[in-house]
Write a structure and sequence with these properties.
The chain is an alpha+beta fold and 404 residues long. 49% of the residues lie in helices and 8% in strands. It has helices spanning 12-16, 19-28, 48-56, 82-87, 98-109, 112-116, 119-135, 141-146, 148-158, 165-176, 181-207, 213-219, 229-242, 245-260, 262-269, 275-286, 318-321, 356-373, and strands spanning 31-36, 40-45, 61-62, 295-297, 301-303, 306-308, 313-316, 378-379, 402-403. A five-stranded mixed beta sheet has the order 1-2-7-4-3. It has a two-stranded antiparallel sheet with strand order 5-6. A two-stranded antiparallel ribbon has the order 8-9. Strand 5 (301-303) and strand 6 (306-308) form a beta hairpin. Helix 14 crosses helix 16 and helix 14 (245-260) runs parallel beside helix 18 (356-373). The radius of gyration is 21 Å and the shape is globular. The two termini are 38 Å apart. InterPro entries: Cyt_P450, Cyt_P450_B, Cyt_P450_CS, Cyt_P450_sf.
């Protein structure tokens, strides 16, 4: 392998096939220091047991930089824009007890029962999108199916007006594509626009509640506690982005994996009872979330002879952990009936993904609908011509032209 220190883990080239790089790191440098935009330097943790430990041990691997002796986002300079201060209130960047408090409130509003009510609507949406995809002369699986399905579901769940959804996608794309200080600065107008829109929408829902998640989050109460305005806005941003972004990647990359593994695709076509385990395996195999979001070392930590200092930034690499041969037999082989399958695609520990049930439900419906209606679906171009998105944390295709 070429010098691993020169690998840009946010580049499209890396996203195309990151797995050999991570196999090298698991073998030779399981705690590996890299340069990353904005944060400057960080440690990649790549072995399954180490990644699981990092996700589970919320005392030593913290989310709030202030708990690792660094400047906390909550102590930003006085001139920091209000919008950026507000974003720091999201529960993904907090430790307990602040995180536990917000988690209890979102769990109460974002219940499994509320998600299950969306099943029939999601099935109808999937069928309609397949109809549209079949009618197009040059269909694109991302643009015509994988993106609009989860974006519509999360938008309807939250109560986002239909006419605003294209703008939300544009704003979140700019935000997720901020791979450098320069691009971060360029993304600020989109962040400000998103926050302004959400503040106006929340104000409208306060005056006129509806049967949607925004109204439920405004009203939710736990032991006399409610979400503050900033917490509510930060929560909505998190739900909008996480509520569709990773599912887009799972559906797109998952269908590509099935098309590239015809024996497994045929296996699933012959037994749709495998859909549940197929989704779990495609989560493991395709890495729609490549790394967990950053942690900070709350103390000096020795890992395989390498000392990670207090305050250092750490990225637990989920894509690597889920291909670790110490945990998975033949990890680079797609096995839709794999059991057990203790993948870490939704994280682990106190920050385990709150939307995991929604994502799996959407994916089961999406794969089932596509395979039943379009069993001969194939890529319209060679794999090396496919465009992958250059972005932190997530891994997904820009587009996937298909022959339907």
């Amino acid at each position: 392998m070429n010098d691993p220190r020169k690998v840009d883990i946010y580049s499209a080239e890396h996203k195309r096939d990151p797995f050999p790089f991570y196999a090298f790191l698991r073998s030779e440098a399981p705690a590996f220091e890299v340069g990353v935009p904005v944060l400057k330097r960080a440690w990649l943790i790549t072995r399954y047991d180490d990644v699981a430990l990092c996700l589970q041990d919320s005392a030593r691997f913290v989310k709030d930089a202030g708990n690792a002796g660094l400047r906390s986002p909550k102590s930003m300079p006085w001139w920091t824009p209000v919008s950026l201060r507000t974003l720091s209130e999201n529960m993904l960047d907090l430790d307990d007890p602040a995180h536990r408090r917000l988690r209890a409130l979102i769990n109460k509003a974002f219940s499994r029962a509320r998600i299950e009510q969306l099943r029939n609507r999601t099935e109808v949406l999937a069928e309609g999108l397949v109809d549209r995809l079949r009618a197009k002369s040059k269909p694109d699986l991302i643009e015509d199916f994988a993106l609009p399905l989860p974006l519509t579901v999360i938008s309807e769940l939250l109560g986002l007006p239909e006419e605003a959804r294209t703008r939300f996608r544009k704003w979140t794309n700019v935000f997720l594509g901020a791979r450098s200080e320069f691009r971060m600065a360029l993304s600020l107008p989109s962040i400000f626009a998103l926050m302004r829109y959400l503040r106006r929408l929340v104000a409208t829902r306060r005056r006129t509640p509806k049967d949607d998640l925004i109204s439920a989050l405004i009203a939710v109460e736990e032991g006399g506690d409610r979400l503050s305005e900033s917490e509510l806005i930060a929560m909505l941003v998190l739900l909008i982005i996480a509520g569709h972004e990773t599912t887009v990647n799972l559906i797109g990359s998952g269908m590509l994996a099935l098309m590239e593994n015809p024996r497994e695709k045929k296996r699933l076509l012959g037994d749709f009872s495998l859909l549940g385990s197929a989704v779990e395996e495609l989560l493991r195999f395709t890495a729609p979330v490549e790394t967990a979001t950053e942690r900070y070392a709350a103390q000096d930590i020795d890992l395989h002879g390498t000392t990670i200092r207090r305050g250092d930034v750490i990225f637990p690499v989920i894509a690597s952990a889920n291909r670790d041969a110490q945990k998975f037999a033949e990890p680079d082989r797609l096995d839709l009936a794999r059991k057990p399958n203790p993948h870490l695609a939704f994280g682990d520990g106190v920050h385990f993904c709150v939307g995991s049930h929604l994502a799996k439900m959407e994916a089961e419906i999406a794969f089932g609908c596509l395979l039943r209606r379009l069993p001969e679906l194939t890529p319209a171009c060679p794999a090396h011509e496919l465009q992958w998105r250059a972005a932190p944390v997530v891994r997904g295709l820009k587009s996937l032209p298909v022959i339907a």
